[in-house]
Amino acid sequence: MLELKMPRRPRDIAIAAVSCALVLIGLVYTVVQFRRPHAPTVEYFTVDDGKTYFALPSPHFAPFEYEGKEAVEARLFKGSDGQPFVGYLMKYRPEMQRALVKANEATSDAGTPMPDVTIRDEDRLYKRPGESQWVPGSDPAAAEIWGGLTDPKTKARALPWH
Question: Are both 27 and 68 inside the same structural domain?
């Protein structure tokens, strides 16, 4: 039979107290982590070629219809005045967009993690606001669009908004 005895020596009492304190700290940390509200991930979109933008909680896979217009992803950057601006636009090829929506719906219905969907460079299309031609991500011109983006006012390198 197992017999529990209270420690009597000061050293044993200290070890027991520290052990209990560590277990208590671990429990409190775990409870706090689960109760802390997690901020939803937000993505930005536009329906007017980047003149204006709006935020929606993730996930949305552009292009999609929003208030009767085609919405595409608007990638925001921080301007020299501290305000965000749309640096470039991004959307998926129609077949990839459908695959992502289908995978996300299966995930939502089953309550399981989203299955892997391989997104190739050519499945993403990019363009700058005001331009008419969408460029596949596999085209070297795409790197010129999303790489080395500059502030339109100062021409200094722009940093992502968040």
Answer: no
Contacts of residue 127, defined as CB under 8 A and 6 or more positions apart, other chains included, come to 88, 89, 133, 134, 135, 145
Q: Which backbone phi and psi does 78 adopt, to 5 degrees?
A: -90, 120
pTM, two decimal places? 0.69
Q: Using one digit for the tens of pLDDT, what is the confidence trace for 34-68?
A: 565 555 588 999 999 999 999 998 888 999 999 99
Within a domain: 2: no
Name 129's Cβ contacts closer than 8 Å, sequence gap at least 6.
46, 49, 50, 51, 86, 88, 89
- Give the number of domains in the chain: 2
- Residue with structure tokens 């749309």? 86
What is the β-pairing status of strands 159-160 and 64-66?
A: unpaired
Same domain for 81 and 30: no
